Amino acid sequence: MKRLFLTQALRRGFIGGSRIWTLVGTLGIAMSVLRRITKQKPEVAFSAKLEPGQSLLISHDREAKVVRPRR
User: Fold this and answer.
1) Among residues 56, 52, 51, 47, which one has the least CA distance to residue 66?
2) 19-38 vs 2-10: helix axis angle to the nearest 10?
3) What is d(CA 14, CA 27) in angstroms, rounded to the nearest whole number?
4) Does the reported pTM lie above 0.85?
5) What is the dihedral of CA 9, 13, 18, 19, to 10 degrees?
């Protein structure tokens, strides 16, 4: 719905020459950019470089079973 409204505003405003629709389109774009800038970025909890042959087991279980590598 939001994208349709913004597309309509841009079409009628910038292409059609309507000042009100140009203002609505500009405000819509500004709000999208502001939302993207202020979006919280995910926090990195763990980072490690794996060497060839190593593996990493991700589990929510505190007593996760150790998986043996395939042969």
Assistant:
1) 56
2) 130
3) 13
4) no
5) 90
* Interatomic CA distance for residues 58 and 65, integer angstroms: 11
Q: Residue length, the chain?
A: 71
Contact 50, 59 (CB under 8 A): no
Residues 6 or more apart in contact with residue 50 via CB below 8 angstroms: 56
* Both structure tokens of 12: 């009628």
For every residue of 1-42, DSSP letters joined together read: -HHHHHHHHHIIIIIT--HHHHHHHHHHHHHHHHHHHHPPPP
pLDDT per residue of the chain (71 residues) written in tens, 0 to 9: 777 878 888 788 878 888 888 888 888 889 889 988 998 888 888 888 999 999 888 777 666 566 666 66
